[in-house]
Amino acid sequence: MTRLPSVSAFSLKVAAIVGMTCNHVANVFGGALPGEAMVALYALGGLTFPIMAYLLCEGYRHTSSVRRYAERLGVFAAISQVPYSLLFGATGNVLITLLIGLGMLWTLDRVRNRVLCALVMLAGLVASGLCDWGVIGPVMILLFWHLHDRPRGVALAMLVPMVAFGLPALSWALSETTPLSLGALGYYTVGFGLATMLMLNYNGRRGRPLKWFFYVYYPAHLMVLWGLTLFS
Predict the structure, then answer these.
(1) Residue 5 exposed, middle or buried by CB count within 10 Å (0-12, 13-18, 19+)
(2) Each residue's pLDDT tens digit, 157-211
(3) CA 54 to chain centre
(4) pTM to 2 decimals?
(5) Could you give the C-alpha distances from 32 to 35, 104, 229, in angstroms and in order?
(6) Dist. CA 148–CA 54, nearest whole Å
(7) Angle formed at CA 34 by CA 33 and CA 39, multiple of 5 degrees
């Protein structure tokens, strides 16, 4: 089997924001799009969260200051919440999910009291239930973290969400074949599969240093999409 070229963190981030944009376009304007376009956009959308969760673990592993990392996530999560709520309602955006995951990683790494650690984990899971990706979000982050050093650890970590969401999506697509059901199936199969291949070929290098671009892009593209809804 031909091995894909190695990819940097920059390339992973580009793939994530492309997938995120496709997914949000499908969610906001899917009803006005041809069925084939809707399916393709949703399928590419599956790239996004696995890569974001994986890169959060890499960021935590290599950051010189967890506090500053958390502050950046917190600031942009707060900025993004207004346009996110305008588009998708009163649910926490994905940066809040990532921030919760970061807090859970720090707790596992630093808190030695098992009871306190367990309480923080439970609180994190409950809080994430109110956010984008729900409970599975921090679970994926923890899986990436704990399976990092195992051979094909990324693939093992991805098995949980692929099975948990892929099988119901397959059942839905078989019982009711619509662009939405096929899009959901593509999200958890094609998108997750592509994300897994990219992460397996991650070379551990940062690549082009455009960190702030990726932070700013999230609220900016949400504002653009919301603005477009005013004219649709």
Answers:
(1) exposed
(2) 999 999 999 999 999 999 999 999 999 999 999 999 999 999 999 998 988 878 8
(3) 8
(4) 0.94
(5) 9, 40, 12
(6) 9
(7) 90
Name which of 69, 26, 72, 66 is nearest 45 in CA terms: 26
pLDDT in tens, 18-70: 999 999 999 999 888 999 999 999 999 999 999 999 999 999 999 999 999 99
Between vectors from CA 164 to CA 122 and to CA 178, what angle results, nearest 5°?
A: 130
Domain coordinates of the chain in residue numbers? 9-229
Closest CA to 155 of 143, 166, 164, 167: 143
Tokens of residue 156, six digits = 């093992």
Of the candidates 163, 162, 151, 196, which has an alpha carbon nearest to the alpha carbon of residue 19?
A: 196
For tokens 């920059």, the residue is 10
DSSP state at residue 31: G
